[in-house]
Amino acid sequence: MKEKTLKVSGIKxxxxxxxxxKVVLRKxxxxxxxxxxxxxxxxxxxxxxxxxxxxxxxxxxxAGIIIKEMSVSWPIGYNGGTQGSLSGLDNIxxxxxxxxxxxxxxxxxxxxxxxxxxxxxxxxxxYSAGMRSRFNFALSMAFNFDCFLVDEGLAAGDxxxxxxxxxxxxxxxxSSLIMVSHSQQAIKDFCDTACVLENGRLVEFSNINxxxxxYENT
Amino acid sequence: xxxSSLTIQLRVIKALYIREMISHFGRKNIGFxxxxxxxxxxxxxxxxxxxxxxxxxxxxxxxxFALTGYSALVAWRNCVGRTSLAIQANLGLIxxxxxxxxxxxxxxAIFEFTATTISLIFLTIIFAAFGLIHFPVNPxxxxxxWFLLGWFYVGAGLIALFLNERSEIFHxxxxxxxxxxxxxxxxxxMVSWLPKNVQSLLLLSPMVNGVEIxxxxxxxxxxxxxxxxxxxxxxxxxxxxxxLLLVKRIKKFVEVEG
Lengths: 218, 258
Description:
The complex is a heterodimer of chains A (218) and B (258). By secondary structure, chain A is an alpha/beta fold. Chain A has seven helices and eight strands. In chain A, strand 1 (5-17) and strand 2 (20-33) form a beta hairpin. Chain B has 258 residues and is mainly α. At the A-B interface, helix 2 of A face helix 1 of B.
């Protein structure tokens, strides 16, 4: 059987701003195999998040296509994807339905992982920032996506929770990972290859240290 | 997690629909009973007012005239008004690639229409039980008229969503548009009660055609309903098609927060 991949080809994206149009992504080509963990490095405003959002299907590119043979998560790392007006439990039920997952399993996982206990009955908008990101992270880990999209590292919660997040991601050894981060440590910990996004193009490296060296010296 | 796209879409619309019910009616108090009580209070009130003003409705009982007219009016107002806000109310959900803008729009439009449908059926039974109206003479015809109306409202709702996303002006003028289109909803008069030259003009409105069918189904052929089903079908088809094409174009200029 042919191996499943996620293939991004010829992606272009231009934003219209007050001062004229700005080309963010010129021509992006990328292929991710099952189980591959890839980091994307780039300066602020280089288009990393835009690329993740396009792969995640939130934004549409101006040109190019994405062929998804794998199921892809929503971008993890923001508050996006959950609903503040609904309780934690209602959010869990809703997303279990949307992704066709077993509700009981998702609920058990989130309750155990997030350690939110009775707070799951309250609307998310009443949560503190830490609780909210714990909830969001736990929920995204509860689904068995083939490929996870992670934006801006795993800044969720305190030190202990951060370790737990690390373990959770490492447990998904069979899944692919596309990670955007400024933290070199996180990238070294999680990824096996890296690209640098500059001037709207991806420069690929087979070795992470090469990528980091390149990124720091340009 | 690999399912065909139709299965996914149906699953998503079902989930959105239930979610819509929860956030619309809440879990507390009498919750979703408001679905019936609000329109009930309104049409009962109108029926009383109209009976007092000795309005003449031909052979149609005032309560029945108010019920059919008000239901059509409310469905029109809610389908357009609430569907136009489908994206703003659900921005966070576009994060999930399974959930498309079309899913959000269709769910909202259908939710609003079914809510009014259930209240219409419920009130028909109540009004008939209290002897305010007779049970519909031809229920199937009434259903056909109502369904054709709903089809038009859903299509119009999709177009409203596009306009609302395209320009802030829509949000400011839609209340005015709702008032100005009130005569075009068919709620306030049967076509045959009006002068001939006004009749042909009003019959250009698909909603007038639909309400005439609905009322013929409720009160029988003696009320002299005027309508054209082929005309209504054509307009419905065109409206829905335009709506779908416009909604498909939205994604390109919506800004998702995050």
